[in-house]
């Protein structure tokens, strides 16, 4: 199936969407990606994504901003307009909260905002909860983000080696 714009066309349930079209202008040729609904994007990438890992009868995903690493529409970090991601900080202390902004969806360079939180555990989780709630991010991701941040903070704590107690030898 072709389109008058001579682009690649995908047909999904009687919906024809132009994925990439080439437009010519006085400044040259550039590729423009037409916005699709998140459900249609999910139908396209759910079984054929470079981030998929199929193991032990389960399907996992390694995409950015996927809080549970599950291949599901709910936790997908690519198709939704507002997503939250939690990563360990580069210096090994604290977490980095990656927020996908709603504005500027067509500008990938400015699409994500990174906030580094380097506080104690309780204050970090409180700040993360506050960021998600006050900026109207998805409520269903709040608990998953808190759990991931908690696991990252727990892994950054130093491991204390316990000494074995030796019993004193009995003297007779």
TrEMBL record:
<dbReference type="GO" id="GO:0005840">
    <property type="term" value="C:ribosome"/>
</dbReference>
<dbReference type="GO" id="GO:0006412">
    <property type="term" value="P:translation"/>
</dbReference>
<feature type="domain" description="Ribosomal eL28/Mak16">
    <location>
        <begin position="40"/>
        <end position="155"/>
    </location>
</feature>
<keyword id="KW-0689">Ribosomal protein</keyword>
<dbReference type="InterPro" id="IPR002672">
    <property type="entry name" value="Ribosomal_eL28"/>
</dbReference>
<dbReference type="InterPro" id="IPR029004">
    <property type="entry name" value="Ribosomal_eL28/Mak16"/>
</dbReference>
<dbReference type="GO" id="GO:0003735">
    <property type="term" value="F:structural constituent of ribosome"/>
</dbReference>
<keyword id="KW-0687">Ribonucleoprotein</keyword>
<dbReference type="GO" id="GO:1990904">
    <property type="term" value="C:ribonucleoprotein complex"/>
</dbReference>
<protein>
    <recommendedName>
        <fullName>Large ribosomal subunit protein eL28</fullName>
    </recommendedName>
</protein>
<comment type="similarity">
    <text>Belongs to the eukaryotic ribosomal protein eL28 family.</text>
</comment>
<dbReference type="Pfam" id="PF01778">
    <property type="entry name" value="Ribosomal_L28e"/>
</dbReference>
């Amino acid at each position: 199936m072709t389109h008058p714009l001579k682009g690649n066309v995908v047909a999904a349930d009687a919906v024809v969407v132009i994925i990439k079209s080439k437009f010519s202008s006085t400044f040259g040729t550039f590729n423009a990606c037409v916005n699709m609904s998140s459900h249609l994007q999910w139908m396209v990438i759910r079984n054929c994504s470079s981030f998929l890992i199929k193991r032990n009868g389960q399907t996992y995903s390694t995409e950015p901003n996927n809080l549970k690493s599950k291949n599901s529409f709910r936790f997908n970090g690519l198709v939704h307009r507002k997503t939250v991601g939690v990563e360990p900080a580069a210096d090994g202390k604290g977490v980095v909260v990656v927020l996908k902004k709603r504005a500027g969806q067509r500008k990938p360079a400015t699409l994500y905002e990174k906030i580094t939180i380097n506080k104690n555990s309780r204050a970090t989780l409180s700040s993360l909860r506050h960021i998600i709630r006050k900026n109207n991010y998805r409520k269903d991701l709040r608990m998953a983000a808190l759990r991931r941040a908690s696991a990252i903070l727990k892994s950054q704590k130093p491991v204390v080696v316990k000494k074995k107690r030796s019993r004193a030898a009995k003297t007779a």
